Amino acid sequence: MESVLSQSTAHRKTRLVDLLVQAEHMLMDARRIRQPQLANALDRLLHAIQQELIAPAEDFSRLIRLIRHIDRIIKNMLLISQRDALPVALIIGTQEPSDVLRDALSRAGFAPRTINALAVDHAKIKVLAAEAELIMLLVQGDESVASLDIPFELIENELRHKTSLLISSKDSFQIRAAAAKAGVSHFLTEPLDVSRLNTLLQSSRILDEDDKPLKVLMVDDMVTAGVYWGKHFQKQNINFRFESKPEHAYRSAVEMQPDIILLDLYMPDIDGIDLAKIFREHPRLRDVPILFMSTEENDRRRMNAKIQGGDDFLNKTIAIDDLLKMVRYRALRYRQSMAEKRSDSLTGLLNHNAIKDLVEAEIDRANRQNQQLSVVLIDIDHFKNVNDTYGHQAGDIVIRKLSNLLNTRLRRYDGVGRYGGEEFMVTLPNTDEQTAAHLINRLRVQFGQSGTLTENGSNLFCTFSAGIASFPRFLDLTSLIEAADQHLYVAKANGRNRVVCSEEALGASPDKSD
């Protein structure tokens, strides 16, 4: 970070904005990996940078002292244990993982550790598998799980109790059966379906993220049931809400958008089946799993309950451990299904509707918290020429390359979506227009300098243009997108390969860099 301040050729304010963006990214990572000492130091640095932007000092001496203090904290962290910073994804195989796989792991917050299945002692594999949070098995050629030189019985416990993925270059029932018998959770084939891969990686960490506990709504006219079950659910990092009145239950369901609804079959005010129909009529609740809970033993009545809105039927005498397992399984399947519906099949990013929904939600958040929000529209320059000259496969590679750049270089809470074709949308919470322009301009330079290898062996270089608009200058979704689109049009009309916002045009010439 100190080198940013020493760039004498850059304007003072530009250097400070550069440092601000870098410190914000580091602060988010420090909080995510639960390093309070580092987070506190970075927070002090951010306040010092903001003060410097408002009331400049004679030199950067105070900032440099803080940066050097942060450097010492990081060095001490690395000396203690570099691998403990992120949960480990153990990759077992005989070949190196692809860049696509590494990028997906990075975005999901995993530190990959690759070991050669044939070169590492089997006892060591068992130790490493026990330490890892995620296990990935890479199978090449005609190999199957059974033919790999790995004693799977040694890591059977880890495979059955942790998320595990087998990635094979060949798809056959025999390999799938061997994977299932070994206890592997998921099976993927090359070329990787990025959307499904991202979904699986994200869902594997859902229960471990403090800000994303499972959301369970229980509806029962007996208040004592809510007290009893609530104690057990809350111990499992589950956001549990109980309602005894149907009208309150409906409002709660729409508001919290639960991952699963546990619904009493018999209630005095309304039948559980009829309440399930009401839930199903709301677009936000149409696909949410509904599990009826009752002591009903009549098979016809149970079948009717399932047909008319329920997904399963549980006896109220069910053991708490069994109920928790069922809730986890159903809720995670629902989250995974919803994530796949919201994902773009080519890039794994949010699709058109999902990114617009996210922008709308971020506008509401920014309004409540009195914060700024920037929205960016990005379009790859001369993309039709790429398809016409090199073919659509090369065009897909370029799109995936830009998506990976956006996916791995922005903050975890920034939203990235494929808006359509070669166009992307990015939402940057708590970011003003000028800071957003500077950040996107850095990515523009990086993308333009990195070539893409085509099938005929030539190196293809592409650029992008971007338009930015911000809240609260534009107060709603429509005006924000229209303003960003207008600024993108200006960028295209003025030569492309540049970033345009309301304040100023950055990247005034195609070869300009930071």
Topology:
Layout (H helix, E strand, L loop, with lengths): L1 H4 L6 H21 L3 H19 L6 H21 L6 E6 L5 H10 L2 E6 L5 H10 L2 E6 L16 H6 L1 E6 L4 H10 L3 E4 L4 H10 L10 E6 L3 H12 L3 E6 L2 H11 L3 E5 L7 H10 L8 E5 L4 H9 L4 E4 L4 H22 L10 H18 L3 E8 L2 H8 L1 H18 L5 E6 L2 E7 L3 H17 L2 E2 L5 E2 L3 E8 L5 H17 L5 E2 L4 E2 L8
Parallel strand pairs: 1-2, 1-3, 3-4, 4-5, 6-7, 6-8, 8-9, 9-10, 16-17
Antiparallel strand pairs: 11-13, 11-16, 12-13, 14-15, 17-18
Helix pairs in contact: 2-3, 3-4, 5-9, 9-14, 16-17
Structure description:
The model is unreliable at 80-85, 206-211 and 504-514 (pLDDT under 50). The protein has helices spanning 2-5, 12-32, 36-54, 61-81, 99-108, 122-131, 156-161, 173-182, 194-203, 223-234, 246-256, 272-281, 299-307, 320-341, 352-369, 383-390, 392-409, 433-449, 477-493; strands at residues 88-93, 111-116, 134-139, 163-168, 186-189, 214-219, 238-243, 260-264, 290-294, 312-315, 373-380, 415-420, 423-429, 452-453, 459-460, 464-471, 499-500, 505-506. The radius of gyration is 26 Å and the shape is globular. The strands form four sheets. Strands 12-13-11-16-17-18 form a six-stranded mixed sheet, with helices on both faces. Strands 2-1-3-4-5 form a five-stranded parallel sheet, sandwiched between helices. A five-stranded parallel sheet has the order 7-6-8-9-10, with helices on both faces. The protein is α/β, with parallel strands linked by helices.
